[in-house]
Amino acid sequence: MSRTARVSAALLALLALILAACGSNDDKADGSSDAKITIFAAASLQGSFDDLSAAFTKAHPEYTVAPIVYDGSQALAKQIVEGADVDVIAFANESSLDPVTEAGLSDKGSIFATNTMEIAVAPGNPKHITTLADLAKPDVTTVLCAPEVPCGSASQKLLKAANIDVKAVSEETNVTSVVTRIANGEADAGLVYATDVAAAGDKLEGVTLPNADDAINRYPIVVPKNAPSPEAAKAFADFVLSAEGQKILKQYGFGPA
Amino acid sequence: MRLPRPLYLLALIGFALLLLPIVGLVSRVRWETLGDDLFSSESMTALGLSLGTAACATVVCVVVGLPMALLIGRTGRRTASVLRTLVLVPLVLPPMVGGLALLSLLGRSGLIGRPIFEWSGYSLPYTTAAVVVAQSFVALPFFVITLEGALRTSGISHEQIAATLGAGRWRVLSRVTLPLVMPGLVAGTVLSFARALGEFGATALFAGNAQGVTRTMPLAIYTAFNGVGVTQDSAVALSLLLLVSAAVVVCGLRSWREDAVR
Question: Which residues form the signal peptide (chain A) (predicted)?
Answer without folding.
Answer: 1-29
